[in-house]
Amino acid sequence: MTDFERYTAVYSPELTRFCMKLCGDVHDAEDLFQDTWTRVFDRFEQYDPEQSFKSWLFAICANIFKNSKKQKYNSSRAVFSSKEEKERFLLSIPDEEKDLDAYLDLYDAIYALPKKHRVVLVLYYFREFSQSEIARMLDIPEGTVKSRLNTAKKLLKRRLSYEEYQR
Amino acid sequence: MKNISDERLEKMLTNYCEADCGQSFVYDPDRRKPKIIPFARFRRTAVAAASLVLISVLSLTVYFLFGNKISTPIAVAPLSQGAATPSAPADTGGGGTQEQEGAAPTEGKNFFSEIIDWLFPKATESSSTAPTVTSPTNSANVPPTEQAGEKTTEPAHVPPTQPVHVPSTEKPTESAHVPLTEPITPTQKPTTAYVPPTQPPYVPPTEPNDPPCNDDPTEGEPYWYEPTEYSGEVEYPGYEPPTEGGGTMSADPPNVCAIIDSSLLDGNARVYCKVYSSSGKRLGSANLYDGSHSVSVSVISSRQTQLNYEIPDDLITYNDYYLFVFYDGSGRMLSQVQQYIEV
User: In chain B, what are the domain boundaries?
Assistant: First the structure.
C-alpha cells in the first residue's frame, strides 16, 4: 500500500463528513470528495510530511469548494435527497436537544450562506481548526476569517429567528 | 420575534458539525475527470476540413456571382453610350465610326465588370470579342464589339492594313480619303475646270546611285563616301544635257487650261490671268492688262470655251502649287485653277 492509499483509507470518512457539511447534497459532496482526492494525488509530491496531512487535505477541499463556480457543488436547495438521510441527520443530534425543527432550519440556513462564509463556518465548528489555521488554509488574513465568521453567524441568527417566529 | 442567543447558536452549530452523516465515500481513481478539450484529437483534421469547406463555399459563391456574367455575351450597350450607334451611312469613309469607337471605351463598365476584368482578364477578352452584335455599317472590317463601343480598350484587334482603323483626330470629312502624302491647300475648291496632266517626262538621274568607296578614310574627311563628279560623258537614251543654267525643263512650256461656260464671256474676247503662290503672294506684274497675263481663248463648243494660259518662263522659279485665277476684260472672275507646276 502506498502512502496515498493509506491516507485515503484514513481520512476518507472525515473528508466525507466535511464535504457533506459544505454541500448538503450527497451527489455534490461525492463530486467534491473525488475532486479533492484527485487534486491531492496530482500534488502529492508537494506535501510536506512535517505538516499535518489533515490540514493540507482540508485546505485543498475548502479551496476547491470556495473557488468553484457558484452553482458547482451547490446544486441542491438543502433538502434531503431521501427520507433515510433526513432521519439519519436527526438521529445524530444529541438527545438533550428537543427542538429538532430548529436543526432543520439550521440545515437550510447554512446552505443559504455564501460559499466563503459557509467554508469558514464549517471549518471553525469542526472543532479541529482555529481561526489562524483557517486563515493559513484559505490564504486569507485572520481578521478576514473572524469577520466572515461573525457575518455568517449573524445571518444564521437572523434566519433562525425568522423561522422560529414563523412557527 | 424571539432572538436566538449566541450560546444557543454555538451549541447548535457544534452539534450540527458533529452530526454524523452515516456514510463514507470511497475514492475511485477511475472517476478522474480528464480535461475536456474540444476537438483535441481531431483539431488539425477539423481545421483542414473547415478550411476546405470555406474555400469551396467561396468558390461556389464567386462562380454563381460572376460565372454567368462571364459566359453571357454582352449584347446591348447602355443608352448613355453614344458610341453604340451604328446609324452612320455605310462606307462614308469610316472616320465617324472611328471617332466613336475610340471615345471612352470604359464608360459602360460597372463595378462587377471591373471585378471580372481584374479576376478573369482573358475570359473577359474572349467574351468581349464574341460575335454577338451585327451592324450594317462596315461589318466587313470592324469587329462587332468595336461597333458596340464596349470592352475594347486597345486597337490591337483591328487589322493594321486597313486605313479605316488608323486613329485620326480630324473630323470625318471627305478629305479623309486623300492620301496623306499629297499636300492640301485650304483654298482648293471643287471646280469643273479641266486640268490636263502636266507630268514632266522622265529624266534619268544625273549621278550614279552607288558612288565608289573612298579608299583612304584617314585623311580627316567627315564622310566615308565621297561623291564623284559627273563627267558628263555618259549618255543616256533620250537625255539632253542642259545648255544654260541647268535644270530639266520640258520642251513644252507649262500651260494652265480651264473650261468655262461660253455665256460668261459675253463677247469679251480678252481674258487675263492672275497667278498666286501657295503662300498667297501674287506673281507677275501688277498691271493686269499687260501682255504677261494674256490668256488665249478657244471655243470648244457653243456652250464651252477653253482658256489656255501659257506661263511665262520667268514667272515661276520653283516647284509648288500655284493658283491661277482667270478674269475677263471687265475684271470679273471667270474661273480659277490650282495646279502643281514643275519648273
Answer: 95-172, 255-341
